């Protein structure tokens, strides 16, 4: 495309976006007022960066099954799925009952409870590489704890991480690391780069405590790791005595035993979060007995892990019922097959309309992209705030679909196939109407 055509293209998208934004503002006065009020007491008006988007985020007032309703009374099909945590949808009778029962039995019990034991046993059965585990309050904490255990066990300082990977609020490894990341000494490599990462590991191995990797890059655009890449990481870490940590906070929902079971690779440690808490604050980290023994202070372990709410009865009760009775292995396989179908349908739309539109991911966790290059690592992604992403989000809102600005889609159990067919129909209509201003597929 020559420069003049590209500029026309960009300004046409900007014009459409300005129009969509005006409509959004007019339709959402209560969300806007809440946002303005919140900005006085919370920087940016919120406590979770992921939930912010311009011109202001919708305030969600309530939810039912797979639908949410905002403060101004609009109802949406929820495809945000709480950024992968919302496997159970907005209402789930067995979980709600478990929480009522837990409340009835008393809060702040000040001791151990049976639910944490049952949940720990269930997790260890489903994910056999987790011989032992400990609970905490978030995926972010889980990654931090696992990294600290690895550093203690190996007596080495560094972590090898991948550009663009998100490991929670304390460990975000974008092109430039935000100031809130823990200042661990790092070695950085490129996701899915087999020879480059192997060389980096061989050059720095004796200083590296752990390789920390998401088996599918989740927040970084739903880019699956190749089997070759994960296999190389397993071989090289074993060879150099490095702890291989799979961050499965997001990906453990993709198969009954997590992505490690899909790929047939056993990491030394695994971190969990999100759906395992049944909708409540949750984190867990675990791995081989050999590594986890450092937390057993009865037998000389030096790591004494704290956390008032680590075994809180609401998360333990909801998580146990959610994983045992609701997100059973069968339900997990069903939901992820639904996601695979949706991804294929979205990709077919991009191809049939010759647009640079595609969806990546695995199972029920997807991300749309506005380029037709093969997405293997995050430097290929357009920014979350690119006008083409923002326009899609605002237009989908106006059609009754709650979607994330960065294009992430997370399915939940109450969704019906017909709900997703309706969504695909709306995306088809959107792509056809805006074809002239959307990125074209590269000529073949
Ligand atoms: C791979 C990964 N690790 C860690 C985290 C942090 O989990 P939490 O938000 O529960 O702290 C996330 C959250 O999105 C994640 O996707």
Description:
- There is one protein chain.
- By secondary structure, this protein is of the alpha/beta class.
- Among the domains are: 1-46, no CATH class; 93-326, Aspartate Aminotransferase, domain 2 (3-Layer(aba) Sandwich).
- 41% of the residues lie in helices and 16% in strands.
- It is built from 13 helices and 18 strands.
- A seven-stranded mixed beta sheet has the order 4-14-13-12-9-5-8, sandwiched between helices.
- A hairpin with a 2-residue loop joins strand 15 and strand 16 (365-369).
- Helix 3 packs antiparallel against helix 10 (313-326), helix 4 (114-126) crosses helix 10 (313-326) and helix 11 (329-352) runs parallel beside helix 13.
Characterize the biggest β-sheet.
7 strands, mixed
Q: What integer is the average pLDDT?
A: 95
Shape: globular
> CATH superfamily of the domain at 93-326, called what?
Type I PLP-dependent aspartate aminotransferase-like (Major domain)
CATH class of the domain at 93-326: Alpha Beta
Structural class determined from secondary elements: alpha/beta
Strands ordered across the widest β-sheet: 4-14-13-12-9-5-8
Quote the beta fraction.
15-25%
- What is the rounded Rg? 22 Å
Bound molecules: pyridoxal-5'-phosphate
| CATH architecture field of the domain at 93-326 | 3-Layer(aba) Sandwich
What is the CA-CA span between the terminal residues? 14 Å
The CATH topology label of the domain at 93-326 is: Aspartate Aminotransferase, domain 2
Q: How much helical structure, as a percent, in the residues? A: 40-55%
Number of strands: 18
Number of helices: 13
Residue stretches low in confidence (pLDDT < 50, at least 5 long) are none
């Amino acid at each position: 495309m020559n420069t003049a055509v590209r500029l026309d293209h960009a300004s046409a998208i900007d014009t459409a976006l300005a129009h969509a934004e005006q409509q959004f503002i007019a339709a959402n006065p209560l969300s806007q007022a809440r946002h303005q009020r919140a900005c006085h007491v919370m920087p940016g008006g919120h406590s979770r960066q992921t939930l912010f988007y311009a011109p202001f985020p919708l305030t969600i007032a309530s939810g039912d099954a797979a639908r949410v309703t905002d403060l101004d009374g609009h109802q949406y099909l929820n495809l945000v799925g709480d950024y992968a945590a919302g496997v159970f949808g907005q209402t789930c009778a067995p979980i709600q009952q478990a929480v009522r029962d837990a409340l009835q039995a008393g809060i702040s019990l000040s001791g151990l409870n049976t639910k944490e034991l049952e949940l720990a046993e269930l997790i260890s059965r489903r994910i056999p590489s987790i011989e032992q585990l400990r609970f905490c309050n978030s995926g972010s904490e889980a990654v931090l704890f696992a990294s600290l255990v690895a550093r203690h066990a190996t007596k080495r300082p560094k972590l090898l991480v991948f550009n663009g990977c998100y490991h929670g609020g304390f460990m975000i490894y974008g092109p430039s690391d935000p100031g809130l990341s823990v200042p661990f000494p790092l070695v950085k490599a490129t996701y899915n780069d087999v020879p480059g990462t192997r060389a980096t590991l061989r050059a720095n191995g004796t200083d590296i405590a752990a390789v920390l990797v998401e088996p599918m890059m989740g927040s970084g655009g739903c880019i699956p790791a190749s089997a070759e890449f994960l296999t190389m990481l397993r071989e090289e870490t074993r060879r150099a005595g490095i702890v291989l940590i799979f961050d499965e906070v997001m990906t453990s929902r993709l198969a009954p035993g997590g992505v490690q079971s899909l790929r047939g690779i056993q990491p030394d440690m695994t971190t969990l979060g999100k759906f395992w808490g049944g909708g409540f604050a949750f984190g867990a980290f675990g791995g081989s007995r050999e590594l986890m023994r450092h937390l057993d202070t009865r037998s000389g372990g030096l790591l004494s892990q704290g956390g008032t709410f680590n075994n809180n009865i609401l998360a333990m009760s909801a998580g146990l019922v959610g994983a045992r009775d609701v997100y059973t292995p069968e339900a997990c396989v069903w939901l992820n097959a639904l996601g695979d179908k949706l991804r294929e349908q979205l990709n077919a739309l991009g191809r049939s309309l010759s647009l640079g539109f595609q969806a990546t991911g695995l199972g029920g966790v997807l991300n749309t992209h506005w380029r037709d290059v093969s997405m293997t690592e995050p430097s290929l992604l357009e920014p979350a705030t690119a006008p083409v992403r923002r326009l899609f989000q605002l237009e989908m809102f106006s059609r009754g679909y709650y979607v994330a600005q960065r294009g992430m889609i997370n399915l939940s159990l109450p969704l019906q196939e017909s709900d997703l067919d309706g969504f695909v129909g709306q995306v088809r209509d959107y792509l056809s109407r805006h074809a002239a201003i959307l990125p074209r597929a590269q000529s073949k």
